[in-house]
Each structure stands twice: as C-alpha cells, then as structure tokens.
C-alpha cells in the first residue's frame, strides 16, 4: 500500500523535506514546566522519554521514580492518570519534584475518562506539562467527539500541548468498520492488515486536524501510531511522516521483556530514525520482577548514541572474549568502567562539556587490543591467557604507560579521571 492509494484524500502524501540535522522537517512543540522547556520536533535533538509504573495515588513513590527516570536521562516522564484519586495526587507529585529540583515535564496519560478528570481537577490539568489522548478510548459517535473536544478545550485553556496517540489495540471501531466497508468496494481490495495501518494513520491525522479546528495550535500537537510488530511500525510511520508535518513519537508498543523487547524496538526504530523519522522515542520494555525501570531510558539513549544522533555518556568499546581471554579481568574492568562513567555523568555533564562524546576501549588481548585502544580517546589492552602480564594504556592514540600488578583497574580509572579533567575541564583565562 502506498500513501497515494489512501482511502482518505484529505491525508495524501507530501514530499519529505529533510532538515540540516538529517531529520524530517516537523513543527516545533514546546513542553514546559516553570522555566524549563523541552522542544519536540522542529530540528531539535530526538527526545528520550519514559513512563512510571508506580501507582499514581502514591505521590511520594511516584515522584521518586520520576526523579530516578529523569536522572537516568528521561527528558519527559509520563504518569498514569486514570482515577479521581490519581488526578488529585498529580499536583502533590509535581510539588515534590519541584522541592527536589527536578524540572522534568510530566505528561498525563489519559484513557476513557480524561475529559472528566481534567475538568473536575483543574489543579491536575495545570500541574501537567502535556496530555496524552487516545481517541479510540473516548467512546463512540457524538460522545467520542464531545469528550475529545472537552480535552482539547482544556489543553487550549491551560496552553498545554497534547500527544494524540492511536493504538492498534484500541483503534476507533467505527472508523475501522468504515474503512473495511470502503475497501470491500475496491476493484482490488487491500489486505486487512493494510487497511488497519491506513486507518491508524487517518485516525491520527484527522484527530489532529479536529484539534486545530477546536483552537489548539498546530505547534501543540505530537502524533503517535503504536503497533507491536516491527514491519507494521515501520510502514505506518513512513506513511504517517509522508502525510503530515506534526512531530512524531516513536515506540513499539508491548515490545516485550529483556533482549526480545530491546531487539524488536531497536530493529524498528533504527530504520525510521535513519530515514529522519521520529522526534521523540520511548522504549516500552516489560521489566523483570523487581527490575530497574530506568533500563528503558538507557536503551533509548544507546540506540540514539550508537546511530550517531545524540551523545549521552562516554561509550565503552570492549571485545567479546574468546579462548585467548579465559580470564574475566577485562570483562569486569569493562563493566566497572562503563558503570563508573554513567554514574559520573550527572556531575560531569555540566562540569566537563563534551565528555559524553568520549570513547573508551577496554580490550582483552593483543590481537585487536592495541589497535582498538589507539583508535579510542583512551584505551587499555589487557593481557590474554598466557600473555605477558602487562597492560599498555593509550591516550589520544599514543602509548603513555604500561600497568602491571593487582591494581590495574584502580590505576586505569584514575587515568580516565585525569584525562577527563585535562581534556574537558573548563579552561580558566586571565
């Protein structure tokens, strides 16, 4: 299916205009809290966001998790607002975050009753920086239209942007039925999956245009079309990007647990990001019991950094190991250094501008160790099994020292700290 075959002529394809940063040209949307603003689209760097999985009625626990996600690098954090009790606690969550000097914008996730909650709890509407609306979960017919209009009117009143997020698990049944009926009359009907994808795109764009008709600025709208299969997501977003210039939120919904969720999300998002599609991303990982929610933030950052789209923390290059490296020394050192660099970034980010672009190599033997270490900003080549127990260190391509003994890890970390200070520390001029 191509965009030009769309069943709705109002959402025809447009030429894709790529900006200077390699991103498709989209409208800028500002998501604000206080004096802090995060721009989505309009040539801004791709924004990383996440979502809490705490009970929103537990204000302290939710604020703590929001803080943890923000510290990990989530530039917006979404919270569930599903009951009157949850809506009542949103201002308290915001106040707690402000007391902790956490200025990350909060996004309210609404389904079914968002129009009621935002109307009945104006303090909640004001405390949120953005609303997430799913038109497929707002009833049917005139009821849906009225509920949607009510939420948009509140967004206009408080000058809040919205994400209109359609999802194939809750697609507007009336629209889908109409699409299937129209498709059955075609001389060559599309496959049902193609009709569903087109319905998602048409639903997102038509609701965005309705929001504009109701008074919402076109610079206050972000769109998403969430599905859970890689090829569907790629096709839907390629089509969506060709038909509108709203900024797009990317994410594979219900991606799954562990490596499956990471691989599937990366496979889908990497294709789209490489094509300049996507202005903000969320990696929807199912956490293991007791797992760290911030893992999805780290995965999102690593996708963007691996693709050269953004830099968040120094990258560690390490070999996979083989029969030459039966010792686990290089594995332990690589893990320790990577964890150390990530822990330091909240302090280093302001103190050492540019340190996030640093490359560190921790290699396990002489085969590729010296070469990889020379190519990195700073690197160490540890001895493999049966090799001379010495570890040359390379700084900016030059061998500077050879470490020996039991304190190699501590000595190398000290060398990294010194390098960061010398290379990225602010120079004081007279």
Automatic annotation (TrEMBL):
<dbReference type="Pfam" id="PF26540">
    <property type="entry name" value="GcpE_C"/>
</dbReference>
<dbReference type="InterPro" id="IPR058578">
    <property type="entry name" value="IspG_TIM"/>
</dbReference>
<dbReference type="GO" id="GO:0005506">
    <property type="term" value="F:iron ion binding"/>
</dbReference>
<dbReference type="InterPro" id="IPR011005">
    <property type="entry name" value="Dihydropteroate_synth-like_sf"/>
</dbReference>
<feature type="region of interest" description="Disordered">
    <location>
        <begin position="1"/>
        <end position="21"/>
    </location>
</feature>
<dbReference type="InterPro" id="IPR016425">
    <property type="entry name" value="IspG_bac"/>
</dbReference>
<dbReference type="InterPro" id="IPR045854">
    <property type="entry name" value="NO2/SO3_Rdtase_4Fe4S_sf"/>
</dbReference>
<comment type="function">
    <text>Converts 2C-methyl-D-erythritol 2,4-cyclodiphosphate (ME-2,4cPP) into 1-hydroxy-2-methyl-2-(E)-butenyl 4-diphosphate.</text>
</comment>
<keyword id="KW-0414">Isoprene biosynthesis</keyword>
<feature type="compositionally biased region" description="Polar residues">
    <location>
        <begin position="1"/>
        <end position="13"/>
    </location>
</feature>
<dbReference type="GO" id="GO:0016114">
    <property type="term" value="P:terpenoid biosynthetic process"/>
</dbReference>
<feature type="binding site">
    <location>
        <position position="372"/>
    </location>
    <ligand>
        <name>[4Fe-4S] cluster</name>
    </ligand>
</feature>
<feature type="binding site">
    <location>
        <position position="319"/>
    </location>
    <ligand>
        <name>[4Fe-4S] cluster</name>
    </ligand>
</feature>
<dbReference type="GO" id="GO:0019288">
    <property type="term" value="P:isopentenyl diphosphate biosynthetic process, methylerythritol 4-phosphate pathway"/>
</dbReference>
<comment type="similarity">
    <text>Belongs to the IspG family.</text>
</comment>
<dbReference type="Pfam" id="PF04551">
    <property type="entry name" value="GcpE"/>
</dbReference>
<dbReference type="GO" id="GO:0046429">
    <property type="term" value="F:4-hydroxy-3-methylbut-2-en-1-yl diphosphate synthase activity (ferredoxin)"/>
</dbReference>
<keyword id="KW-0479">Metal-binding</keyword>
<feature type="binding site">
    <location>
        <position position="365"/>
    </location>
    <ligand>
        <name>[4Fe-4S] cluster</name>
    </ligand>
</feature>
<dbReference type="GO" id="GO:0141197">
    <property type="term" value="F:4-hydroxy-3-methylbut-2-enyl-diphosphate synthase activity (flavodoxin)"/>
</dbReference>
<keyword id="KW-0411">Iron-sulfur</keyword>
<dbReference type="GO" id="GO:0051539">
    <property type="term" value="F:4 iron, 4 sulfur cluster binding"/>
</dbReference>
<feature type="domain" description="IspG C-terminal">
    <location>
        <begin position="316"/>
        <end position="417"/>
    </location>
</feature>
<keyword id="KW-0408">Iron</keyword>
<feature type="binding site">
    <location>
        <position position="322"/>
    </location>
    <ligand>
        <name>[4Fe-4S] cluster</name>
    </ligand>
</feature>
<feature type="domain" description="IspG TIM-barrel">
    <location>
        <begin position="37"/>
        <end position="300"/>
    </location>
</feature>
<dbReference type="InterPro" id="IPR004588">
    <property type="entry name" value="IspG_bac-typ"/>
</dbReference>
<dbReference type="InterPro" id="IPR058579">
    <property type="entry name" value="IspG_C"/>
</dbReference>
<comment type="pathway">
    <text>Isoprenoid biosynthesis; isopentenyl diphosphate biosynthesis via DXP pathway; isopentenyl diphosphate from 1-deoxy-D-xylulose 5-phosphate: step 5/6.</text>
</comment>
<protein>
    <recommendedName>
        <fullName>4-hydroxy-3-methylbut-2-en-1-yl diphosphate synthase (flavodoxin)</fullName>
        <ecNumber>1.17.7.3</ecNumber>
    </recommendedName>
</protein>
<keyword id="KW-0004">4Fe-4S</keyword>
<keyword id="KW-0560">Oxidoreductase</keyword>
